[in-house]
Design goal:
The chain is α/β, with parallel strands linked by helices. It has 8 helices and 11 strands. The radius of gyration is 21 Å and the shape is elongated.
Length: 221
Amino acid sequence: MRVLLVEDSAVLGQTLHDHLERAGHACDLACDGQQALAHLHAHAYDAVVLDLMLPRLDGFAVLERLRAGGDAVPVLVLSARDQVADRVRALDAGADDYLVKPFALDELLARLRALVRRPPRAQPPLLRLGAIELDPRLRLARHAGRDLDLSPKEYALLEVLLRDRGHVLSRAQLFERLYDHGSDASDKVVEVILSTLRAKLARAGAGNPIQTRRGFGYTIP
């Protein structure tokens, strides 16, 4: 396989590069995030081994830009950051696997082999409404190319309405999609979330695409 190795430590980077080459793989080495993106734009890779603590552009930013551009190349994060929050953030940003330093070289090779055996993953389609765009993979909402500062519940409500565009959903139905069965919140909270979502859309210049059908519920036609 052809691998892009992104590691800012010269010693570790060269060690891993040599190990991958000895195992029969072609390996390019990048020492910072900007260099990694340049390699990815110029060449096709079977897999990427990505450190998170990088100069110029960190590994999280590299992941987000890579996935935002539609590149589905398998990415194995290799990092000394061993907190659950770091692993969750990397996986949510588009990583396929996460290996904590220190590690065994043979395990790294085995994980790479497992990644390239997987079938290519389907990219979830973007949800669009005029200039509004939702990226379900990154859980980002934008209007006219600018990020909308939505809370998780505001984002979830907008995503539900866009996925069921043209259907009227009652307050109770929306509540069931937003909250688990153990929640002690009232379904009236949907109206609060809807109000703040509408206000943020209006401030962003998106107007008010969500219609209220009194006695029935809410819809985006």
